[in-house]
Structure formats: C-alpha cells, structure tokens
Amino acid sequence: MTAGGTKSFAFDDPSLSSTCEGCGASMHRAVGEALHGGRRHWHVEATCDCGNGWINCGSDDPPPGVRDALIAAYGWSTVRVGAGSVGRGALLLKCVREVYGGSLAEARQRVDALRASGVQGTQVDAEILAGALRRAGFPAEIMSGSREGGAK
Predict the structure, then answer these.
(1) In 3-state terms, what secondary structure has residue 121?
(2) pTM, rounded to two decimals
C-alpha cells in the first residue's frame, strides 16, 4: 500500500508510460477514483525511486485501461435492488436509463440483473447507480470487493 491507503500495482496500458524517463527503471503505479458532488473523478499516478513521477486524471468515465486497472485493484462492486422494486418497473427502467443511457432493451436487461444477481462495476459505478435508485425510492444494496465478473 502507498500513502493514503491507495493500492499500488502494475497494469499494462500502452497510453500510460511504465518506464521512467529519468533513469529507465520501472515505475510504481497506483490508481483510484472518487465521487465528489455526484461526479466521478479518477487518477493514475506513477512514481519512480529516483524521484520522477507523473499523474493522469480526469472526470466522468475513465479510459478503458484505467477502468480495468480499478477493477483489478479493488474488485467489482455489485448493486442489487430489494423487493421494494416489484410493481415499479417503469420507474426502475427510467432510473436505469438515466444512469446508463442506452436502449430500452439494455435497460430491461440491467433491471433484470438488478433484481437477480446484481449489476457490477467499479465502486464509484455502484455508488452512482445506488444513489440514483435510492433517490427514486428503491432499496439499493452495494456489495464490494468481488473479483468475479458478471452483469455490468
């Protein structure tokens, strides 16, 4: 673990340098994401024992390599809705489409997953979805840390 409790690990993304420009050594990388004011913020940082480093950060959806690294580091978080969603399918569909966009068919698949095994994503993905569900009056549960894949 690095300072602040961020897990440090290696991952392969061609858009993110892994070799120090100063000394040529492999850099130590850490990745993280947070939810501030309802908006996702992500970062990737690299440091070298020689003192060089860089940081890449942004808001909203992270690049695919960063998203994969977040899941590798922290595992999947899963969101499920409870029995309070029965009979409220139209509102649940609307809520899911507001979070994910996409077609009605895709929203129906996510609703079915929410009611069954759950919808998986990063911790912030889960917080965004669960927050939207709770604001709409649905009982949403988040389970964190699974390394197994599933409905996304």
Answers:
(1) strand
(2) 0.76
